[in-house]
Amino acid sequence: MFDYSMSELTAIFAMQGFAGLILFSVFLLMALGLAIIFGQMGVINMAHGEFMILGAYVTYLTSNLFAEYAPGLFDGYFFVAIVLAFLASALLGMLVEWSMIRFLYQRPLDTLLATWGLSLVLQQAYRSIFGAREVGVVIPDWLTGSYPVTDIVELPVSGIFVMVLAVGVTLAVALLMFRSRWGCQVRAVVQNRPMAGAVGINTARVDRLTFALGCGIAGIAGSAFTMIGSTGPSSGQLYIVDTFLVVVFGGAASLLGTVASAFGISQAQSTLEFFLGGSMAKVLTLMVVVLILMVRPQGLFALKVRR
Amino acid sequence: MFRTTFMTRHDLLGFAVLAVLLLLVLPLSLDVFRLNLVGKYLTYAFVAVGLVLCWGCGGILSLGQGVFYGLGGYALAMFLKLESSDPESTRIQSTPGIPDFMDWNQLTELPWFWEPFQSLGFSLLAVLLVPTLFAYLIGVAMFKRRVGGVYFAIITQAIAAILTILIIGQQGYTGGVNGITDLRTLLGWNIRTDFASYVFYFVCVGLLFVCLLVAQFIRRSKLGRILLAMREQEDRVRFSGYDVAGFKIFVFCVGAAFAAIGGAMFTLQEGFMSPSFVGIVPSIEMVIFCAVGGRLSLLGAVYGALLVNLAKTVFGESFPELWLFAMGLLFIGVVMAFPNGLAGLYQQFLGDRVARWLDQLGRPSRSQAPVALEGGAQ
């Protein structure tokens, strides 16, 4: 990797940097939901990837519906799909919280196993309903093609769209968490559950809504995922480890940390990919993250909370 | 007043029943193919027993036991592969004398880290030491910094993911996604005969009992009590002057060593090793074997590994679609409804009766607390 000239290197970094931005957006969208569920509630949701895939399948169904019944509106189906994906995943999340998670808040390691079981059930359900083959959506015309940033770097429009979506969702979550009454309640429950209950916050309801919101955001991530890749029953599992590492690396309870670590990990992976190939890039990135976590277990941005 | 007897009558009965089952009933009633399958299931029992110590007693949930299982298996597989790749039988390769997959990947000489695996002694040592050392390093890095619980689980899982990607990516050095296959002889002795299957089965059972006894010893010793105390109130144990990290590292290493023995036995009985036994999914399945058997019961872990694998083979063959559902629901059900698994059920319905029966048999049993619930009864 050392026999490149300076200008070539700059171009490579720029190119891979932009490719990394798309990866960053996907990581960010997935990690946001998990940061809420894991960071705020301390629940390990191993089925997070499957909630994402649910969003992807909902998008797929919506695109088919539009193509069938409303071809004139096809250009706009994606916006409807995002909303539907959010609602579907959030509803499923609420159901799961009500039927499983709420009994396990005291046993985080057991949540991990139970939600892994849930992920297996969901995977098989997808396989039975949609078939084992991967499905892809037809991307509307305005999202295809690419936009030349410089002479050598071209960005696919769908990638830009995903980025905008990721930034938008992040801002919305930040507003919700730090500027709304509900966000205030969530943070209160995280910091001190009994006290939050004592001042009249319905902690059970806050928990359910928080979990649903996290799952809903995973649904949006899945929706965005259809723009760049195809969807199969077990696609979600591929991302779960990365996503957890992003959240842990960022510092579990910190939104800013999640953004920073998603950025760092995706950029590192995408840049190394050029020199070392996909699998070694991933190995090296993950290894560095694990090593850093061993030195600094609280992650990049640790929230200081008295327990 | 804690009188730590090594084994109560109740435990002894449990060990005896398992020994009769594994050494007499199964070998006499099953043909060699099925016995070989049972032997394969038993290799997971090693991991599950290690997990009882780590997770059930110590409260350390490792989602990376597949790493140690795999490292143990690979260490032995490398030796066996080198033995079956002598220049004579690989003369059609462009470079005779190196394993076939290296030849396919245009390697012309044996990589340096394969060299020592020419020796059986080194390989056997490596089976035990490499995974244990690796566990030691992970343990030191994590437990000294008081990383535990959920974070530990996630990081061990990430390590499992890393190792899998690494093995699959470095085809020329590791055999890639197919793993190390086509292992034929051990010191010139054909490992594919029925006789060899029988031998390996009994070696496997023997080693399993060694591991079980070691685990039993750890549990009944003062160390085991400290582990339980640590799981419940880590800070109090620390303030009492114990080196919490040291105990955790020790038990994690023991778990890793057990898993490695299991992996090596798997390689011997199946004749291959592949990354599909290393990654996230197999690692987490190993946890479920332990959970189904009862995370606090050593013997339960063995039954858990046997039964879940049996169910997997039976269902997986006839209804592959139902199997994932069943497995998923098993996870959820065990966690939500039966946190103490089979051992918990046994304790609830049979344990007292058996204990009373044992009391009537001889003089009153010395221990009043039955084993399986010992930890869970606080």
Q: Any key phrases for this structure?
A:
heterodimer, A: 307 residues, mainly alpha, 11 helices, B: 378 residues, globular, disordered C terminus
Which residues of chain B form runs of ≥5 with pLDDT under 50? 367-378
Oligomer type: heterodimer
Helix content class of chain A: over 70%
What is the strand tally of chain A?
Answer: 2
The number of strands of chain B is 2
Radius of gyration of chain A: 20 Å
- Structural class of chain A, by secondary structure, is mainly alpha
The overall pLDDT average of chain A reads 84
Question: How are the elements arranged and paired?
Answer:
The complex is a heterodimer of chains A (307) and B (378).
Chain A: H1 6-41, H2 48-69, H3 77-99, H4 108-130, E1 146-148, E2 154-156, H5 157-179, H6 181-191, H7 193-198, H8 203-228, H9 235-250, H10 255-276, H11 278-295
Helix pairs in contact in A: 1-5, 1-8, 1-9, 1-10, 2-3, 2-4, 2-8, 2-9, 3-8, 5-6, 5-8, 6-8, 9-10, 9-11, 10-11
Chain B: H1 9-29, H2 32-57, H3 65-84, H4 100-104, H5 120-143, H6 149-169, H7 171-174, E1 185-186, E2 189-190, H8 194-220, H9 222-232, H10 234-239, H11 244-270, H12 280-293, H13 298-318, H14 320-336, H15 341-361
Antiparallel strand pairs in B: 1-2
